[in-house]
C-alpha cells in the first residue's frame, strides 16, 4: 500500500470519527448537518485513497464515480435537511 | 526527492484539513462553522487533485464547498426571540445544555473505537496486497465501446448508468421534499453598482463555463454534475444580487424542468429496451451522442434542483417572476 494511500485512509477514518462525535454531541441542527457532511467527506477520502495508484499510473475510475455520486447525494440530503430545519424553526417560533 | 515533496505536501494538507474540520465543529458560532466548513471543502478539493481525481476535485469545489456553503449560509437564521426557536436552530447566544462529561467521554471513546476498527480493517485488507484492480481493468478494456474517453464519465454514464439514474431520482426526491416544505425565502435587497457589475460579467462567463464543462466531460475532467453546479452558481449570484428572476422557468414549467433529468434518462433506457438491448445498454455507435443528450438533461435538472434548494422552497407567485420594479427614488443601476 502506498504511503499516500495510508495517510489519506487514516485521515478519512479520523474525519469520520470527528464528524460522528460532533453529530452525537452537538444539539444545534446546523452543526449536526455540518458534522454529517464531514463524515461523508471522510468516507470519500477513504474511497479516493483506495483508488489512488501512484503518480505514474492512472487511478481506478470506479471509486471516483462513486464519490462523485456521493457528493451530489450529500448536497441534496443537506438541502432537504436544511429545509426541514427551517420548517422546524418556523413551527417552534409560532407556538 | 519527489516522494519527499509529496509527503510534505500530504502531511501539511491533511493537518490543515483535519484542523479545519475540528475547528468547524468545535465552534459555537454558526456562521464561523459554515465558513470554516467551506474552507475545509476547498482544501479537500486540493486533496482530490493531489490524489489524481480531477473530476471529483471539480465537483467538490463547486458542489461540496461552494453550493453546500451557500445553502448553509442561507439557512442561518438571525436569533429569534423565543428560547424554543433558539434551541431548535442551535442559536449560539443561548447556552446549549452540555451533555455530562461521562457521556461525552463515552461518545469520544466510541468514535475513536470506530475509527480504530476502520483503520485496522483497511490495513488488514491492503497492507500486504494492493487494492483489487479487476474493476479498473474492466473499465479500461471496454472504454473504446463506451462512447467517451474520460473513464470516470464512462463509468458514470455508461457502465454504471443505473446508479446515476437513481442518483438523479434522489435529487428529484430531495427537491420535491424542499418544495413541499414551504415557500422560498424572501428576495434579497437589490445590489449596488459594484456587485451588479460583477454579476453582469460573471453570469455569462459561468454559463459559458457550464457549457464547456458539459462538452469537455467526454474526453477530459468535467461532466454534467460540474456543469450543473456551475449553472446553479450563476443562479445563486443572480439571487444574491437581488434579482427575483434567476433563470428558473415559470411555475408551469418548473416541475417538468426538474423532472427532465430522470425523464430523459429513463426514456433512453426504455428505448434501448424497446430496441431489444438491455436497459440502458447503448449501441456503441450511438453511445457518445446518447451520453451527451442524457448529460444535457441532467445538467439542467441538477442546476434547477440546486437553485430550488438555495431558494428554500416553492418560488413565490407568478407575479413575482418579473424583474423587481426599481424604486423611483433609487439612482439607475448599470
Provide structural commentary:
- Chain A is elongated, with a radius of gyration of 17 Å.
- Helices cover 84% and strands 0% of the residues of chain A.
- Chain A contains three helices and no strands.
- Chain B is mostly helical.
- Chain B contains twelve helices and no strands.
- The chains are: A mainly alpha (95), B mainly alpha (334).
- At the A-B interface, helix 1, helix 2 and helix 3 of A face helix 1, helix 2, helix 3, helix 4 and helix 5 of B.
The main β sheet of chain A shows up as:
none
Question: Radius of gyration of chain B, rounded?
Answer: 23 Å
Fraction in beta strands of chain A: under 5%
Q: Helix count of chain B, per DSSP?
A: 12
Helix content of chain A: over 70%
User: What do the pLDDT scores of chain B average to?
Assistant: 84
Number of strands of chain B: 0
Structural class of chain B: mainly alpha
H and E string of chain A: HHH
Briefly note the structural class of the backbone of chain A.
Answer: mainly alpha
Largest β sheet strand count, sense and barrel closure of chain B: none
Greatest chain-chain interface?
A: A-B, 76 and 101 residues
Query: Unreliable runs of chain A, pLDDT <50, ≥5 residues?
Result: none
Number of helices of chain A: 3
Residues in β-strands, percent of chain B: under 5%
Low-pLDDT runs of 5+ residues of chain B are 80-88, 90-95, 318-334
Order of helices and strands of chain B: HHHHHHHHHHHH
Task: Kindly report the oligomeric state of this protein.
Answer: heterodimer
- Share of helix of chain B, binned: 55-70%
The number of distinct β-strands of chain A equals 0
Amino acid at each position: 500500500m502506498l504511503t499516500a494511500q495510508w495517510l489519506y485512509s487514516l485521515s478519512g477514518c479520523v474525519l469520520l470519527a470527528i464528524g460522528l462525535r460532533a453529530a452525537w454531541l452537538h444539539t444545534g441542527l446546523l452543526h449536526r448537518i455540518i458534522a454529517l457532511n464531514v463524515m461523508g467527506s471522510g468516507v470519500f477520502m477513504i474511497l479516493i485513497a483506495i483508488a489512488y495508484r501512484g503518480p505514474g499510473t492512472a487511478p481506478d475510475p470506479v471509486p471516483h464515480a462513486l464519490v462523485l455520486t456521493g457528493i451530489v447525494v450529500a448536497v441534496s440530503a443537506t438541502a432537504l435537511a436544511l429545509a426541514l430545519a427551517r420548517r422546524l424553526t418556523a413551527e417552534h417560533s409560532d407556538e | 526527492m519527489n516522494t519527499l515533496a509529496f509527503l510534505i505536501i500530504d502531511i501539511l494538507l491533511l493537518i490543515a484539513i483535519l484542523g479545519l474540520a475540528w475547528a468547524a465543529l468545535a465552534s459555537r458560532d454558526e456562521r464561523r462553522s459554515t465558513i470554516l466548513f467551506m474552507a475545509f471543502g476547498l482544501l479537500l478539493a486540493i486533496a482530490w487533485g493531489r490524489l489524481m481525481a480531477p473530476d471529483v476535485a471539480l465537483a467538490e469545489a463547486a458542489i461540496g464547498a461552494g453550493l453546500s456553503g451557500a445553502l448553509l449560509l442561507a439557512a442561518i437564521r438571525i436569533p429569534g426571540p423565543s428560547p424554543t426557536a433558539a434551541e431548535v436552530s442551535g442559536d449560539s447566544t443561548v447556552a446549549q445544555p452540555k451533555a455530562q462529561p461521562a457521556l461525552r467521554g463515552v461518545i469520544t471513546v466510541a468514535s475513536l473505537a470506530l475509527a480504530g476498527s476502520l483503520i485496522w480493517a483497511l490495513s488488514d485488507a491492503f497492507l500486504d496486497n494492493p487494492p483489487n484492480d479487476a474493476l479498473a481493468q474492466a473499465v479500461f478494456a471496454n472504454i473504446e465501446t463506451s462512447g467517451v474517453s474520460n473513464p470516470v464519465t464512462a463509468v458514470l454514464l455508461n457502465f454504471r448508468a443505473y446508479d446515476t439514474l437513481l442518483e438523479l431520482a434522489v435529487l428529484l426526491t430531495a427537491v420535491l421534499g424542499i418544495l413541499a416544505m414551504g415557500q422560498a425565502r424572501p428576495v434579497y435587497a437589490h445590489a449596488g453598482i459594484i456587485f451588479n457589475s460583477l454579476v453582469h460579467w460573471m453570469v455569462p462567463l459561468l454559463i459559458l463555463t457550464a457549457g464547456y464543462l458539459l462538452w469537455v466531460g467526454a474526453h477530459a475532467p468535467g461532466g454534467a454534475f460540474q456543469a450543473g453546479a456551475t449553472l446553479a452558481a450563476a443562479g445563486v449570484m443572480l439571487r444574491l444580487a437581488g434579482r427575483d428572476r434567476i433563470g428558473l422557468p415559470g411555475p408551469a414549467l418548473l416541475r417538468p424542468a426538474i423532472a427532465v433529468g430522470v425523464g430523459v434518462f429513463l426514456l433512453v433506457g426504455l428505448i434501448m429496451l424497446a430496441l431489444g438491448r438491455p436497459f440502458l445498454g447503448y449501441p456503441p455507435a450511438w453511445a457518445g451522442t446518447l451520453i451527451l443528450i442524457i448529460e444535457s438533461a441532467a445538467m439542467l435538472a441538477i442546476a434547477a434542483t440546486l437553485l430550488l434548494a438555495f431558494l428554500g422552497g416553492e418560488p413565490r407567485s407568478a407575479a413575482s417572476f418579473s424583474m423587481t420594479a426599481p424604486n423611483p427614488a433609487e439612482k439607475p443601476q448599470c
